[in-house]
Amino acid sequence: MISQITGKIIQIDEKFLIVDVNGIGYQIFCSSKTIYKLRDIEKNITILTEMIVREDSQTLYGFYDAIEKQWFNLLVSVQGVGAKAALAIFSSLNIDELSFAISNSERLSITKADGIGPKIAGRIINELKDKIPNNQVDPLFSNLNKDLNDANKEILEDAISALSNLGYNKSNCKKIVLGVFEESEIDLKLSELISICLKKLGNKYE
């Protein structure tokens, strides 16, 4: 199996790169985000790859880093998700967004990818929810400037869940909860946090 290729990009297409290695051109299919990052033609690169062998084809898929490759293998392990579907997901969501969508059962986010319907999105969530890499940063908290311990993290997650269950827009709930948490000079109890957030959200369901 070919696990990585080092060479010069000689052609860039919407869905693939061709990399020249000692006079041999390798066609490597990638997500649009990876192609954008590697868009400098005539530049030497090293790209991680995964080869998928079928009866009638041998196809190389390329990844910008090891995390993207790891997620590719997770996605194609799900029944009904092929290599092209996995790349479509990467083209629609970055790894943090995908991880968050799966861990929070946000099926709609995953269906934004071309060719991914609600049934497949649900299967991805169900099969991968417990397989998210332990070192994956939770994007919900990655931009916080305030130190976060496990107890605070649980309170924030519970507050977001409680507010969204009341009918408020989940994205707005996240922004309000995290904003209140960062502005507070003391650690708030769950009931206190929800009370403050309700005042900021107002009385209208969004």
Descriptive overview:
It contains 9 helices and 5 strands; from the N terminus they run E-E-E-H-E-E-H-H-H-H-H-H-H-H. The protein is elongated, with a radius of gyration of 21 Å. It has helices at residues 32-37, 66-76, 83-92, 95-103, 107-110, 118-128, 150-165, 170-183, 190-201, and strands spanning 4-12, 16-21, 24-29, 44-53, 58-63. The termini are far apart. It has 3 domains: 4-63, Beta Barrel (OB fold (Dihydrolipoamide Acetyltransferase, E2P)); 67-128, 5' to 3' exonuclease, C-terminal subdomain (DNA polymerase, domain 1), CATH 1.10.150.20; 150-201, Orthogonal Bundle (Helicase, Ruva Protein, domain 3), CATH 1.10.8. The protein has 206 residues and is α+β, with helices and mostly antiparallel strands.
Per-chain topology:
Layout: E1 4-12, E2 16-21, E3 24-29, H1 32-37, E4 44-53, E5 58-63, H2 66-76, H3 83-92, H4 95-103, H5 107-110, H6 118-128, H7 150-165, H8 170-183, H9 190-201
Parallel strand pairs: 3-5
Antiparallel strand pairs: 1-2, 1-4, 2-3, 4-5
